[in-house]
Amino acid sequence: xxxxxxxxxxxxxxxxxxxxxxxxxxxxxxxxxxxxxxxxxxxxxxxxxxxxxxxxxxxxxxxxxxxxxxxxxxxxxxxxxxxxxxxxxxxxxxxxxxxxxxxxxxxxxxxxxxxxxxxxxxxxxxxxxxxxxxxxxxxxxxxxxxxxxxxxxxxxxxxxxxxxxxxxxxxxxxxxxxxxxxxxxxxxxxxxxxxxxxxxxxxxxxxxxxxxxxxxxxxxxxxxxxxxxxxxxxxxxxxxxxxxxxxxxxxxxxxxxxxxxxxxxxxxxxxxxxxxxxxxxxxxxxxxxxxxxxxxxxxxxxxxxxxxxxxxxxxxxxxxxxxxxxxxxxxx
Amino acid sequence: xxxxxxxxxxxxxxxxxxxxxxxxxxxxxxxxxxxxxxxxxxxxxxxxxxxxxxxxxxxxxxxxxxxxxxxxxxxxxxxxxxxxxxxxxxxxxxxxxxxxxxxxxxxxxxxxxxxxxxxxxxxxxxxxxxxxxxxxxxxxxxxxxxxxxxxxxxxxxxxxxxxxxxxxxxxxxxxxxxxxxxxxxxxxxxxxxxxxxxxxxxxxxxxxxxxxxxxxxxxxxxxxxxxxxxxxxxxxxxxxxxxxxxxxxxxxxxxxxxxxxxxxxxxxxxxxxxxxxxxxxxxxxxxxxxxxxxxxxxx
Lengths: 332, 299
Prior knowledge:
- The complex is a heterodimer of chains A (about 325) and B (about 300).
- By secondary structure, chain A is an alpha/beta fold.
- Chain A has two domains: about 150 residues, Rossmann fold, CATH 3.40.50.970; about 130 residues, Rossmann fold (3-Layer(aba) Sandwich).
- A seven-stranded mixed beta sheet of chain A has the order 2-1-3-4-6-5-10, sandwiched between helices. A five-stranded mixed beta sheet of chain A has the order 7-9-8-11-12, sandwiched between helices.
- Chain B has a single domain, classed as Thiamin diphosphate (ThDP)-binding fold, Pyr/PP domains (Rossmann fold, 3-Layer(aba) Sandwich), CATH 3.40.50.
- In chain B, strands 1-4-5-9-8 form a five-stranded parallel beta sheet, sandwiched between helices.
- About 5% of the residues of chain B have low confidence.
- Chains A and B meet through helix 3 and helix 5 of A and helix 6 and helix 7 of B.
């Protein structure tokens, strides 16, 4: 039985959406300048807004370019707009609008994008490139929460932070395990050691933390003691934690629910290359779009297709350990 | 309503100051968006020296009227005004395009006191202005201000709110080909943003030639009307028409309609060579020759 760190109590699969709803309500109670900017795509706690704060809903309709810039204009006047839709729409359809009318002036807009490879809606809606396209925008904070508790905490933390944030709402992903206890202190830019391990480290983000936890069971059976670092903030990366992981194990496997091109793995690789060489394997989608997969029956097929499951992570960990031996990298 | 000649004469003088400052900007930089800047001269003069509610001691005064220059490549026109308002030092006129300068190549809110919108990627300003106008409406809805009596001469008092601020957007005719403008137009009508005034600098030319050939716009007035806007077409170089129309649009506040003033202008207006060339972006000889002409006309 794996030994987890403080604030970790692995529970049943629980949808992140509940955390998003609870977090959104706490945000609205804490700040009176919250505005829901909608693009006919729904929103966490939308029913609450409709009932209790209809003045704080701005509905732009299916017009994402306008919606993103309306949010910029509202933020310029002191509001904290929450923009929400599928990432293909809220970010990609309005990418230049976000760059020009939100990012250049670092406006306090929170972008909630429905992101990730899973879903029934096919290549158009199931996003592989969400991290890559947002990471390159200067000054943007990117968060991908691992479970329902971290989602709720992240909503409050991103509202406390003044500036633009992209939050990957992975609500089309399979429900992740409940991982954290309610007193877990989430902080933007701080990765959390879910489990220590001597033989290798899995650096995972969002839903993939759940698969990493499942991979631990497989690896323990084979006598391997592997750590998990929850990289909930993808930008700015917690470089200190990454270096610590590299020095400790010299074998790093990154796991992300999207393309490895421009994603978390590449970000980690840059930190390692400059600071602490380690063997590395990147788990994620190769250069490919996603496709429909029925819930829940076909999800395993999709997982296998993209190599995103616990078994794939376990195989990658063993591959990474043998690379370390080959490169003759010594651990602390 | 009508303004006396002295006010108009004074604005004419101010517009000449604006032109001289624009010429100074081009003289130091050697290049710039000359045509679309000159077509804006009277529009910015009427706004900044007559119509806008501003606090010259505080360019960030929360109740100031906002100006969103969607055609932000023609920021030179507003840059020419800012030193006159005291928002930036006069020497800044010689620093256009310079590294670290307050006068960036496109209007930049982050860098320049008195600039409300960072633009450059065309077709977004009207949305941003609508967002700012919406913010004013939401604030008013959440925290209603004291009722303001607009007329004491009427048998029954007409009571209405005055907006905390109004938002003026300036778009070019070329960028109206961007579909986002029409998303914003729908949005402004839906939310009854009568505190939003959009001024179209209709100079009839974009980079590749006449707007009519690149992407025909007409009938522009009917289009905005069909989107639920109040529309008036004017001569955008006639200061009297400009100030009268701005006042008229202001007095209509409360009708629930966003306002569109289609200002017919001439690209490169005031500099014969630039007018002849329909100059979009001036370099080398076109700028040198134009500046020479300009100095002869405006001193």
